[in-house]
Amino acid sequence: MKIKMNKIMVFFDREGNTLDVWFEKPRKIISEETGEEVILKKDPKTNKVIGFEKLNFISSKIKPNELPVEVIVN
């Protein structure tokens, strides 16, 4: 049996220095701050986490044209 998985969507905002990751289609959400510069994105009906936003994603030590993201497929 095949299970259909949603594609993970990743958006980097260079100006805001934020990384948005969505496990489902982006839509209206409720936000929950974790206190560690991460904001959880939750479905308002189910309270299920459907994504997150990482604030201050790139430190000043990273070269401006390099995005520190790695994808590994096993």
Q: Would you kindly provide a written description of the structure presented here, covering whatever features stand out?
A:
By secondary structure, the protein is mostly beta strands. The protein has one domain (1-74). 0% of the residues lie in helices and 34% in strands. The chain has strands at residues 9-13, 18-22, 30-33, 38-42, 49-54. The model has no long low-confidence stretch (mean pLDDT 86).
Topology overview:
Blueprint lengths: L8 E5 L4 E5 L7 E4 L4 E5 L6 E6 L20
Helix content: under 10%
Roughly what is the average pLDDT, rounded to an integer? 86
Low-pLDDT stretches: none
The proportion of strand residues reads 25-35%
Number of strands: 5
Broad shape: globular
Strand order of the largest sheet: 1-2-5-4-3
Radius of gyration: 14 Å
The ordered string of helix (H) and strand (E) elements is: EEEEE
| Class per helix and strand makeup | mainly beta
- What is the number of helical segments per DSSP (H or I, 4+ residues)? 0
End-to-end C-alpha gap: 20 Å
Major beta-sheet overview: 5 strands, antiparallel
Total separate domains: 1
